[in-house]
Amino acid sequence: MKWTDAQQSAIDAPRPGQLPSQTILVSAAAGSGKTAVLVERMIQRLKRRELSIQELMVVTFTKAAAAEMKARIGVKLAEEFQATGDAYLEEQLNMLPSAHISTLHSFCQWVIRSYFYKLDIDPSFTIGNEGELALMRYDVLDTILLEAYEQGLYNIYDVSDMFSTERSDQILRETVFQIYNFALAQSQPMRWLDAVCDTYESALHQTLLETTWGTLFWKEQQRQIEYLLERYEEAQRLATLGNGFDKWMEKVSELQTLLQAMEKADTWDAMHVGVVGIGGFSFPVLRATKAMNESDPAILSEIKAILAEGKDILQAMPKGVFAITEEDWREQMEYLVPLVRGIIDLVKRFHRDFQQAKQEAGMIDFSDLEHLCLALLVDQESAEELKPSEVALELQDTFKEVMVDEYQDTNGVQEAIVNLVSRGDNRFYVGDVKQSIYGFRMADPQLFMEKYHRFDHDVNGVERRIDLSQNFRSHEAILTVTNFIFSQIMTDEGAGLTYGEAEALHTGRIVEEAPPEWVGGDVEVHVLCCDEDKAQTEPEDGEDLENDEKEMLFVIRKIQELKHKGALVQDKDGTFRPMEWRDIVLLKRSISGSASRMVDLLRREGIPAYAEEKSGYFGAMEVQFVLSLLQIIDNPEQDLPMAIVLQSPLIGMDANDLGRLRLSVGDNSLWSGLRSFVEASQNAGWIRFVDFMDTWRTMSRRQGIADLIWHIYDTLHVVEYVSAMPNGLVRRGNVLALYERAKQYESGNYRGLFRFLRFIESLQASGEDLSVAKTVSEADNVVRIMTIHKSKGLEFPVVFLMGTQKGFNKMDLNRSLLLHKEYGVGLKGYFPDSRVMYNSLPWIFVRQALEENLKAEEERIFYVALTRPKDKLYITGYMKGSINGSTERPATKKMGEWVAPVLQWGESAFTKEQILGCNSYLDWILRSLARHVAGGMQLRQFAEVESPQFPDIPYKDCPVSFHVHDGNDYSVSQETPSVEVDILEQVRAQLPVEAPPLDPVVIDRLTSVYAYESSTERAGKISVSEIKRRFVELEELAKQMIEPDYRTEQHNSNIEGESGTPDSSELLVVDSSKDLDSSVEGMLIGDSMLDSIPDACTDDTEPTGEQGMENGAEKGKEKGAEGISEEAPVDLGPFDVVLSSMNESTPIRSGARWGTLMHEVMQWLPLQPYTRPSLRQALDSLALQGYLTDEERKAISEKRIYDFFQSDLGQRLLTAQRVERELPFGMLFPANRVYPEMLDGEDLFLQGIIDTAFLEDGAWVLVDYKTDRLEEEALVEHYRIQLMLYKEALERLTPYPVKEVYIYSFRLERAIPV
Questions:
Q1: Cα–Cα distance between 157 and 931 in angstroms, integer?
Q2: Of the listed ranges 353-357, 563-567, 1112-1116, the one predicted with least confidence
Q3: pTM higher than the cut 0.85
Q4: Cβ atoms 1027, 1281 nearer than 8 A
Q5: 831 vs 158, 161, 166, CA distance in Å?
Q6: Residue 575 and residue 743: Cα distance in Å, rounded?
Q7: Considering only 162-171, 720-729, 909-918, 1077-1086, which range has the smallest mean pLDDT?
């Protein structure tokens, strides 16, 4: 593969510089091949022997990413080894499974288990499951709150009054959990909590300007004043170039005077006075006079834009923080400080008790993994400075390089761990801050940003930055449009990063000679004008399904259009192929509540679709029924769930029945009179249900929940019933998923139906819904519907980015308590007498900071969406209003008003206010496109701006097109009945209906018979040992047919756990049985059969497949054949020692263990000439490295191994040009070579492991190690079939023939040719 210069620099660093090592930040843009670079860097460092695979620590974001990276490294190492034959690379390949390539959680778990003795935890700890930990959290907090209410701790009554409703204090519990989880994302949680209290308490002794909040509010106020003065100065200058602006400029002069006075203010109250003055100012009506219209239209447009922008900013000031005086603020703080102290102390107490509860239960959670690991790595005497401990220093010596993938998604704790196990010059960070989209998981992109700005490009710098900006995924049109938009909306003030040339995407993919049917081309932006829309400015208002459906139908028409014209997509090899459904993805910011409807609309139009919706489970009818039934089993006095169950189809009461039941019980519960009611009705089904209720209630007290649920399913036939309903497969999956959830719940320490129902309620209350069961996989040929978050890291030929008009979700910003990593807690003010909350100054401050962070993250999510497509990008959305002016404010007029302010802005990037004033992706898109040379023409017409400014915006000629559509053209089509009307009439009249003839294809499918029915009764995979065993059994069967059976029950022996092993008399073999054996071998390995075997295919094979079976079961039989019993003395050859461990349940003396042990020694022992002392040292080294236990090491006699290496065969092995040890193989194998009754064309998958093969003069020498107590002839006869299969496999898998085959018997100490 040819690497770019930047990629090669990342692979080779610190070369060609002078430093031996560097800390490197690779800022890798989307599609730049960062994972490939990461893998290549590791391979090159291993090839140069600068380190071993065990000296690398690689941290990935997910387990799937870690597994993929290991697989990539394994493939590359195998390729390099095949090309070079370097034994060192082979060694690294063998050690790859134990390499530290994992998620940070997995690494932390390894550290904790390795050094558990330094922590006060149970070494057998488990990671608690979600349900068990949730219940434990509630139990611990309930106990604390009960004590607090009883003793008046933590200012609990004021805190509870603020964070509770008339019915419960659930909001208080959620608030405690919220603060607790947020604190744990910090490297030092307790210090962060203490700092929160200190901030509030110290404010009581400071002026407002001295506080953190006041300082930053003041700075932002002065920035806005300075900006407005500059803009008004520009308006005055422009007015001198035109006519008729005198009255407007008089007002501007008044505003300038007010702003200048505010600029000179030196106290909070002085600024307050100025803001009050702004509030009473009368702004001019921007109605142009005749003289103005006769002036240059560009001057008029720009002055109007300046005055309109200034009015918006100034009118917001009296509603902001400077509307209150310092005295007002101090009163706020005096009430807030005790509340904050009470809440924080409550959280600290919860943290302590929760940790103790987990410790007593012997479990930890994922946050504990990080913090326990951090506790091991930090020197406790200097915990505040996070100095490395002895453990950290040891790990620093272990790892020569520490690599962090997706670095932009790490948090403070993870950063601290990485820093402590590495040095300042051996870290390798890879990521893209523009794709940091996991703020809800506490990811902190500022960690990346700080290094991005601090590191430079100096090749000799200890801290170096390398930018990978070439994108090899997307077509150039997509990249340039992305650059055009983000160069305007992504700035340091608006998003924490300025999108300049270094951040821009540069094409690395060239599309040559594209056919006219190729799907690629301009990026298309489509906006539907929907005049029937209801205002939707906030996502919490819910989805407007009607207009969503119109947008969906528009997308469907586009997809059908692409299919109709035979659109082509380009594969990675540059070839073009017809577009398939799987090439299309529909991306949305959120698909909650709309995914199922989108799938229905697509399927109705004949387009297969798939959506993974993470909600809707608890709302499913069948799940609600089962949960309601469990509720009344727990407590039958609950009328609402009882009514749900009784009226369900499985019980069968209707509204009239329920009404009569209610009348019969009066004010009592439905359950109290249910039995008498059903008995009076004489309804057998209802009577059975009441009887079942008694049974279930008894079961709920005596048996597990999973057993109870399954008994309900079995008794009421729930699974069968829901399977027969519409969408039955999904419903069936839902009820089975509830059963599995109950089994998972019971795997922990909690039991009981009440606790299980409480756990389900906690999931529902916290919004942690589950996804409904799926009947279609995203691996199928379907159009996929997914969120932008889900799409990260993926790529698709055709992308529709939908729902861009959807407002950003600000629900979390309206909480009464807000949390910020740097600024701590923002708590609303509270009037206890009226129980009304108000926006306190700390709360406003934290909210503004969080809103800026939210919009910066939304920009990054938008960037991820635009960088997913390979060939074609469509962007769609809708706006309220008509397209033709039939409503008061047509959508086109709204678009014009929205883009007008930026059309007179003379800079390439928008201002902070222009960026943060947007509340949807469509807002950013429209404002950006309005300044596009060709694509923005229609938007500029809507804005009625005749002379817009065109600053030097990068990529302003990029290939993008903008289209406006009438949403009424895409109305939802009604489903047509699938059954003809006349047939329905016949059914209603109960007349016979003639079934329509079936399609011949359907008939053929329903009546087809599988041609290889016999193969369904056989395993599809078989090992070499299984084949050998099968033909030994055939041989025994033949002997029974031609010999008298002298065996008796008394002669049977039991050796090492095997029963029925024949004694030596049974091994008398007559000629006819040998003839059978010869015929068997001829059938199995005869030349005539080889031509029919398909080409071999390799596969990973478990060592137990051949090695374990052979050395275990069969060697036990071999010993039995020689009459060995447990009491008889045995000559153990090289293992002739006696250890205490031999009496354990799996003794080393067993045949299986000896064979396995010898194979392990011959697999891991370095291939080199040995003396007796050097061999002893090598075996000791294997024990030290963990390949052998101490008992196993003592059980091995060095003499037999030494004799092997001194033998002629051993010497040839040491001088061979290539050696393969423990080589797994897999190949297809005609089934009738093993099972004669099976038909030609049926294959088995044969697998095995070759002990050793070495290449000599262009041909293989195959060696199989044996420890059996058999003589030469018996060994050859017993293992001939096995070794001939090994020979066949080796010749099929490699281009070299096998010239010699040997059994090396360690007992006989010689090589036996086969």
A1: 57
A2: 1112-1116
A3: no
A4: yes
A5: 11, 10, 16
A6: 50
A7: 1077-1086
